[in-house]
Design a protein that fits this description.
This protein has 176 residues and is of the alpha/beta class. Helix content is 31%, strand content 35%. Strands 1, 2, 3, 4, 5, 6, 7 and 8 form an eight-stranded mixed beta sheet that branches. The longest helix has 20 residues.
Length: 176
């Protein structure tokens, strides 16, 4: 009888352990930790504004011309707006010599603001990722961007690599 009680207790413990592992995977955008440049010039704060579908924690995938899928078990490890601000700041600082780009929460209160609006940031059924939106400088000038980047391989890691490559193109457009 003690043997059966011990097996039942062991079974309950293993059930509890497996219920905490729900298969959820957390992803981060490559280069999403801000690296402050050693030389600081005129500071520009990057403020990210996301379209409604991008505001939640789920990675987004377009399954056909009409439908978007919010990944249920593949989530952003940190808010997407924070990751995008850090990633773009790092990329823009590599291009710029006259400005220092900083994610808005880290910027000096006197910094000018660059708002970057994203209405698409997703993988697609076509084997590419899409990024679109526009950047608006403090003087009101807008630079639109529509980027489609081929995805090399399957899965969310390949999707994130492709989105990161697309963000390099976005940074080049903004830096012009």
């Amino acid at each position: 009888m003690k043997k059966y009680l011990w097996l039942a207790a062991l079974g309950m413990l293993s059930a509890c352990a497996s219920s905490t592992d729900n298969g959820t995977h957390y992803h981060q955008l490559p280069d999403s930790a801000f690296h402050a440049p050693t030389q600081r010039n005129h500071e520009v704060a990057i403020q990210i504004v996301l379209a409604e579908p991008l505001k939640n924690e789920n990675l987004l995938y377009q399954t056909d011309d009409y439908h978007l899928n919010f990944a249920q078990k593949n989530l952003w490890a940190a808010p997407l707006s924070d990751a995008l601000a850090a990633n773009l700041a790092n990329k823009l600082n590599a291009f710029s010599g006259s400005h220092t780009y900083v994610p808005q929460p880290l910027a000096d209160s006197k910094a000018s603001i660059l708002k970057v609006y994203f209405d698409r940031f997703q993988g697609t059924y076509r084997g590419e990722t899409q990024i679109s939106g526009y950047a608006q400088s403090a003087n009101g000038a807008r630079r639109p961007f529509v980027i489609a980047t081929p995805q090399r391989g399957d899965g969310y890691t390949a999707m994130l690599d492709s989105l990161n490559a697309g963000l390099s193109e976005v940074a080049q457009i903004i830096a012009r």
